[in-house]
Design brief:
52% of the residues lie in helices and 10% in strands. It is built from 18 helices and 9 strands. Strands 1-2-3-4-5-8-9 form a 7-stranded parallel beta sheet, sandwiched between helices. α9 links the parallel β2 (135-139) and β3 (163-168). α1 crosses α17 (359-384), α6 (89-100) packs across α17 and α16 (329-343) packs across α17. The two termini are 33 Å apart. The chain binds D-arabinaric acid (RAT) and zinc ion. Zinc ion is lined by residues 24, 26, 353.
Length: 413
């Protein structure tokens, strides 16, 4: 039942005051310099907004891509904020960010917004954003296959403890023939055949990078047609390298399921779509590998119920996040309520997937509001059944939902 105003206010206060551990972002430790994106232009050229702006643009795709970032940002601002109301979730996010920073987005133009951001000191700005978002730690997406990122890890740097690492291995699993060449160049003796010598070299590669970056978990985004077991390189690598590595290092494996890459390649990063996954693959992984831990999120709305039911059957499965196209108020409310009703607090309702530092502010502001409502409604139902929850109990729920259950699942309490 919907919580009354006073219960809702209590739960909101508690959820807002509870620091979040953001378990999946595309942000970088500030030591990576320009790889950590921030500011108004980056907010505007976010790929979620690029695909929305192309709903209005009449220009050829290439004209957009050939323009510099400032011009792209101006075009997007004009299309989505000047000529139309910014009511989509991603547009509203920019407004929430500016508002939280004390900037009235309706006063002044893009030039004055740029002036404000240009005056910020990067290090102080990181502190300010994390403070505004009330985020205690952000998990990065760290790929040894990324030529801009890898040198930083190889050289080494002083880590900011708020930025924790996760080992991303999409190219390894989804483009094995090209990954073989890269691994060879890095000194791993792989040939591409599916044999035990290759599996153990891949395990050596995973172990080296796990240690180098102190990876909390290992992760991949999978297409909707991912199957397991299967006669595929990905299935072979998962079974013979990723899972044994996970068991040896006590490391969870995160599957982000259901992305259809490059549905419209002309949109580049903004051109990916969604497809319904076969969660039989996840069921098989969980059932056949009770000593491995799996984190999972699904991009398709149609997979959400099945994912929650699977988590009831397998304690080595931890659902997380309302990812990408499900990161809208309507779906977050639906998915979070369903998970609370079927799993209690043993899941992680949200990750931000932020690519731009400032987005932490809106992603967490919007998500916390919905989480608080869903949680308040559960406590209202509970009260109606005869159990009145204390503030301390609600605070315990909030801690579990905002990172505590995740840490317990990973064995990193
Ligand atoms: O949400 C996004 O920004 C997507 O582009 C993907 O990066 C997705 O989150 C992923 O990690 O594959
Ligand atoms: Zn992501």
């Amino acid at each position: 039942m919907p919580a009354d105003a006073s219960l809702l206010a209590r739960v909101e206060r508690i959820v807002n005051a509870t620091p979040a551990h953001d378990i999946h972002t595309h942000l970088y430790d500030p030591s990576f310099g320009s790889l950590l994106l921030w500011g108004i232009d980056e907010l505007l050229v976010y790929h979620y907004l690029v695909s929305e702006a192309f709903r209005h643009f009449r220009m050829p795709y290439e004209s957009f891509w050939n323009a510099g970032k400032p011009t792209q940002a101006e075009w997007i601002w004009d299309a989505l904020f000047v000529r139309h109301s910014p009511i989509s979730e991603s547009c509203r996010g920019v407004v929430t960010v500016l508002n939280a920073l004390g900037i009235d987005p309706r006063k002044g133009d893009l030039a004055s917004l740029r002036g404000w951001f240009a005056g910020q000191d990067p290090a102080a700005y990181v502190d300010r954003v994390l403070g505004l978002a009330n985020v205690a730690s952000v998990c990065m997406t760290n790929s040894p296959f990324d030529d801009e990122e890898r040198p930083g890890w190889e050289t080494g740097f002083v880590r900011d403890p708020r930025f924790v690492a996760a080992l991303r291995i999409d190219p390894l699993l989804l483009a094995w023939p090209s990954a073989v060449k890269r691994l060879q160049a890095w000194g791993y003796r792989v040939t591409g055949e599916r044999n035990s010598a290759n599996a153990s070299e891949v395990r050596r590669f995973l172990a080296d990078w796990t240690r180098r970056i102190d990876a909390r978990y290992c992760m991949v985004s999978l297409p909707d047609d991912f199957a397991f077991p299967a006669e595929s390189d990905a299935a072979w690598l998962i079974e013979h390298a990723v899972l044994p590595h996970g068991r040896e290092h006590g490391q969870a494996f995160a599957l982000m399921m259901g992305v259809k890459r490059a549905v419209n390649p002309a949109l580049r990063l903004a051109g990916d779509g969604v497809g319904r996954s076969n969660l039989g693959a996840l069921q098989h992984l969980c059932a056949a590998n009770p000593d491995n831990r799996f984190l999972a999120t699904c991009l398709s709305r149609e997979n959400q119920h099945e994912l929650v039911v699977l988590a009831r059957k397998f304690r080595n499965l931890h659902p997380f996040g309302c990812w990408w196209f499900t990161n809208t108020p309507q779906f977050i409310a639906e998915i979070t309520s369903m998970r609370l009703e079927l799993l209690g607090t043993s899941f992680t309702p949200q990750h931000s997937d932020a690519r731009v530092l400032d987005q932490l502010v809106y992603k967490w502001n919007h998500s916390r509001g919905i989480l608080a409502r869903c949680l308040a409604d559960r406590h209202a139902d509970l009260a109606a059944s005869g159990w009145t929850s204390t503030d301390a109990e609600i605070a315990r729920d909030a801690r579990e939902l905002l990172g505590g259950a995740f840490a317990t699942f990973l064995g990193r309490e």
